[in-house]
């Protein structure tokens, strides 16, 4: 597929009424394993990539390094890839534009763009500023002739902005403003309340994206509530870290390899994953 065809496919896969389960890769190997499992599109996880390169989360990894990883992930899979670009690697609309240009050059056909400032006192960008930042992303994509899928993330629930009805109203207000600025879908991480999910599905005229969490509602349960797109964020990467920790502890304390044997992935299979890259 061409880059444009991949963008159009990703947009179709996440339409309202659809059920797109989007795993998030942090390197080429995880991307290929997700593709081999049969997923029709992938996302990247900025936190997972940052951790794998020795950085904390929150735009502590340089834009250029993140784009290099995104480009490598895109290069080893055939399916559309949506790139997690956090808050755009800078506060201004120009920063977002530069990042989106890099994403397009890397071959990704979608982005997650969040409104989280990383500042505990003022956790979200002012509405007008975030609207300008989303509009800048759309302008760059339009100039490139690419129907880039912009998944606008609002952290009203993650950052616990306001309470109760006020938080819900803030979420709806931001969502609709982001849509007018050019967003194709709205992402509200850490929202698990079925009643509120159904309100957002009703009040937001574009696909709703939620984050699945271990111990939370299953993907089929969320889809039944009207959610169109579900991503797993950094959870698979953290589970992999947990597995490596178990291997390390067993090896160090007992000198045995039971955990490695249980989850071993063959060398030949691994090599075959990259035979087309």
From TrEMBL:
Gene Ontology molecular function terms on file: lyase activity
Methyltransferase listed as a keyword: no
Record InterPro entries: ICL/PEPM (IPR039556), Pyrv/PenolPyrv_kinase-like_dom (IPR015813), Pyrv_kinase-like_dom_sf (IPR040442)
Assigned keywords, A-Z: Lyase
UniProt KW Lyase keyword: yes
Highest taxon in the source lineage: Bacteria
PANTHER family documented for this protein: CARBOXYPHOSPHONOENOLPYRUVATE PHOSPHONOMUTASE-LIKE PROTEIN (AFU_ORTHOLOGUE AFUA_5G07230), PHOSPHOENOLPYRUVATE CARBOXYLASE
Protein name: 2-methylisocitrate lyase
Organism: Ktedonobacter robiniae
Gene name as annotated: prpB
